[in-house]
């Protein structure tokens, strides 16, 4: 079978080579500039550009290997290449790209995430002053300056509840669990 006057095997190989070079350029520019130039341009398409590149890559590799090493007809190999390209690019998109796009870029926390958490006083909080508390989060322990909401002194090692959180300090009250075990 020929396509554009060239044997289909040559077309598959050329597409595979061009897509491989584009992916390599994209990865290298992403390492240098923190954004892949090719991905940036391809992301203007209605589908993610990287998924399109990987579809073309998987389909062309499948087509090339099918033409080279099997005796199936070119139409059968083309259909199989398209199906395999769709399957692998879907796995890549739904299994890796989409879940990664929904994750946080860092283990940092938002200040408002501290509200409602319990903390342990590590430096006692005086009546009209500041002390320090440590709050256990998924990202690790966070130490923050703290003041008492009710202007009562709070001793070291006491458990407190964070009522309000700002960038510089948290406002706390002594914590009394609802159920005492």
Care to describe what's here?
With 181 residues, the protein is an alpha+beta fold. The chain has helices at residues 8-33, 37-42, 49-69, 74-101; strands at residues 2-3, 6-7, 118-123, 130-137, 140-148, 159-165, 169-174. Helix 1 runs antiparallel to helix 3 (49-69). The longest helix has 28 residues, at 74-101. The model has no long low-confidence stretch (mean pLDDT 85).
Helices and strands, with pairings:
Layout: E1 2-3, E2 6-7, H1 8-33, H2 37-42, H3 49-69, H4 74-101, E3 118-123, E4 130-137, E5 140-148, E6 159-165, E7 169-174
Parallel strand pairs: 5-7
Antiparallel strand pairs: 1-2, 3-4, 3-6, 4-5, 6-7
Helix pairs in contact: 1-3, 3-4
Number of domains: 2
Termini gap: 78 Å
Oligomeric grouping of the chains: single chain
Largest sheet: 5 strands, mixed, barrel
Q: Write down the overall mean pLDDT.
A: 85
Keywords: Membrane, Transmembrane, Transmembrane helix
Pfam family, one: NfeD_TM
Protein name: Membrane protein NfeD2 N-terminal transmembrane domain-containing protein
List descriptors:
181 residues; alpha+beta; OB fold (Dihydrolipoamide Acetyltransferase, E2P); 2 domains; five-stranded mixed β-barrel; two-stranded antiparallel sheet; 4 helices; 45% helix; transmembrane helix; transmembrane; NfeD2_TM; NA-bd_OB-fold
